[in-house]
Each structure stands twice: as structure tokens, then as C-alpha cells.
Amino acid sequence: MSNLNKNPNSEQITRLPKALLHDHLDGGLRPQTIIDIAKEIGHELPSYDASELAEWFRTSCDSGSLVRYLETFAHTVAVMQRREDIVRVSRECAVDLARDGVVYAEVRMAPELLTEKGLTLSAAIEAILEGFRAGEEEAKVEGNIIRVTSLLCGMRQNQLSQEVAELAVKYREKGVVGFDIAGPEDGFPPSDQLDTFEYLRRENAHFTIHAGEAYGLPSIWEAIQLCGAERLGHGVRIIDDIDLNHTPPRLGRLAAYVRDRRIPLEMCPSSNIQTGAAANFTDHPIGNLAKLRFRVTVNTDNRLMSATSMSNEMSELVKAFDWSFLDLQRVTINALKSSFIPFEERLAIIENVVKPGYLAISAE
Predict the structure, then answer these.
(1) C-alpha closest to that of 98 among 18, 204, 176, 23
(2) Alpha helix segments (H runs only) across 81-206
(3) CA-to-CA distance for 138 and 145, rounded, in angstroms?
(4) pLDDT band at 67 (very low <50, low <70, confident <90, very high)
């Protein structure tokens, strides 16, 4: 008989069906792939040993130096400028996620970052989608079923968001399910892109907004109340509007609104620790937010930079907060309920994949 109230072990967590909403394509490359492509195009790397390079990425992002953190993406983006390389990276992304038990993923990328060698935005998007489809087929051969969709990002410090949003609408029947803005929050509020978000709403298109990661409550308020975000990328700083010194905790008006409206929080614990939003897993706001029944989801953000995976994120949360199978199932269902695919498709994955998978594995 199943027991969803038990604590899963690491092997069980790896096999659990998972859903992922916040994962950056250029933050999840295989180190060996970076090395292979860098050698072909003559791009200099800090190391040409895969293990050493992986460690360089992790330590650079742990260093607290913004310069070193941004340098890591300079290397991954550099090896994603040729069409065949984008296809390869996207294919491997799908395969790697599937091997980790992910059954549904929304992987985001700013196509404008892939045009340095002459590719058009459309060509970059088509290469990403081709790679995802190839990766799904390769995963199926390995015995893993996954569906990978794309979110297109506009960079909030640049001027291409409207064009990228129009492409998100153009390709929404071909694997693009939504839009996002990424880049520095501080100094580039979501309202700078208000015309673009109004366009997306007129087109009945889905979008999420990076907010409440490096900047606080004003960013979250603008993303929701001015721009109409359906989800919050990270949203970790919503904890600033909750007084935990009372029993029960007192929610401010914005926090109460976010919870009452079931606005999903795309939380990325390892990444948040690297960027200083939390000191460690035990102190991460996700524990209290989950207890308060916010619509919390668990995500990887940048798997290479954080040396992480969905299984690792879940394992750390089990250790930090004594989460059970039921807790992990809840955040997984939260993610699927919050995904940008049609309702019937979400429901089918929940009922036919997630719930049976959790019941079977927890019964062992």
C-alpha cells in the first residue's frame, strides 16, 4: 500500500515524475558539449577538462562576483551561435531532463542572444524547437517520456521584447508556449515593457515575468498589477511582505493577493542561494511559503551554473524541511496546473503520469 506521507530517498526522488517551469537553455549545457564546440569555433575556455570546467562554472557562480557570474554565460552563449549547435544543445537538454525524471518542461531562452553570427531570431527559435523534438525522440528510445516546450525571453535592458513577443505568438502552435523578460531587475522595471505585455494580453498569449529575485516587492507588484503576469519568475522576495513573528504569520496585502489569486511562484532554491536571496536551503523562504499554501513550484534555473537538477533540488528540500512524497507531489501538480499548455493536456499528465507514479514509488 502506498504511503505518500513517507520521506522519499534519493533513488526514489530521481524516479519520481517531475514538472519544470523555470530552466534556462543557456544555463544547462553539458560541459563536454561546451568543450567540443569551443574547440571547433576557436573559443577559449578556462579549462578543456569536462570535470574541471563544470567546477569552474559552479565556483564562479558561487563567488559572489557579478563579473565572474556573467562570464559563465558568455561562454555558454558563445557556443550557441551556429544552427547545428543550438539544435545539439536543445536536444541534449531534453534528454538530460528526461533522464532526471522530468515529464514536462518549459525551457526558456532569449533568441536575441543567439544572433551574433548572423542567425535571425526566427532561425534561432526554429533550431531550439527542432532540438527539443529530437531530444524527445531520443529520450523515448531510452525509455523516458518527456514533453519540452519553449518560452521566449526578451532581455529587459534591450529593445527587442516586442519583436520577440510577436514571435512567441507566431510560433505558439509549434512548441512555444509563452514569453518572459529576463536580465537585470534593478533599474529595468517590468513596466518598461508594458506595451509588450498589453500586446500579449490582446493576443491571448501566456507570459511570466522574472520578478522578486534580485529586487523586492515593487518589482513583484509591477509584474502583477501593471503588467498582468500569470506567474512570477522566482518571486522569492514575496516573503518580505509576510510577518513571521506572529502566530499565525501575518500576510501583507500584496502577499495575500498573490496567495489568494494562486499566482504561481517559480522558485529556484540553489540559484537563489548563489545570488544571495537565501543563505542556505534551510533558510530559503520556500519552506514557509509552502506551509502557508502559496502556489509554490520547484525549479532548476541554471543547471550547469548551480550544479543541480530537479532531483537535487527536491532532495535538498526533503532534507531541509522534512518534505514527504505528498509535499513533492503537491509542488509537481502546482507546476502542471500553472503550465502554459492547454488544460486538458495538463490534466492528462497529472492523472495519467504524476499521480500513478507517486503512488507506485511511495508504495515500495
Answers:
(1) 18
(2) 83-99, 121-141, 161-170, 194-202
(3) 10
(4) low
Q: For 188-217, what is the mean pLDDT?
A: 93
* Cα–Cα nearest to 317, from 296, 336, 338, 298: 298
What single string gives the DSSP state of each residue in 5-32? TSPP-HHHHHHS-EEEEEEEGGG---HH
Q: 139-173, pLDDT tens digit by residue?
A: 999 999 999 999 999 998 888 999 999 999 999 99
CATH entry, 10-29+80-362, from 3.40.50.1000, 1.10.8.60, 3.20.20.70, 3.20.20.140 = 3.20.20.140
Contact 316/270 with Cβ under 8 angstroms?
yes
d(CA 324, CA 6): 5
- Lay out the sheet containing 18-24: strands in order across: 18-24, 102-109, 147-155, 176-182
The C-alpha atoms of residue 174 and residue 160 are separated, in whole angstroms, by: 21
For residue 61, pLDDT over 90 is answered with no
Residue 199 CA to residue 170 CA, distance in Å, equals 13
The one catalytic residue among 112, 166, 213, 222: 213
40 catalytic residue (yes or no): no
Q: Is the pTM of this model over 0.85?
A: yes
The answer on pLDDT for 194 being more than 90 is: yes
Residues forming a β-bridge with 207: 179
| Cα(20)–Cα(4) distance, integer angstroms | 21
Domain range annotation of the chain: 10-29+80-362
Dist CA 171 CA 164 (whole Å):
10
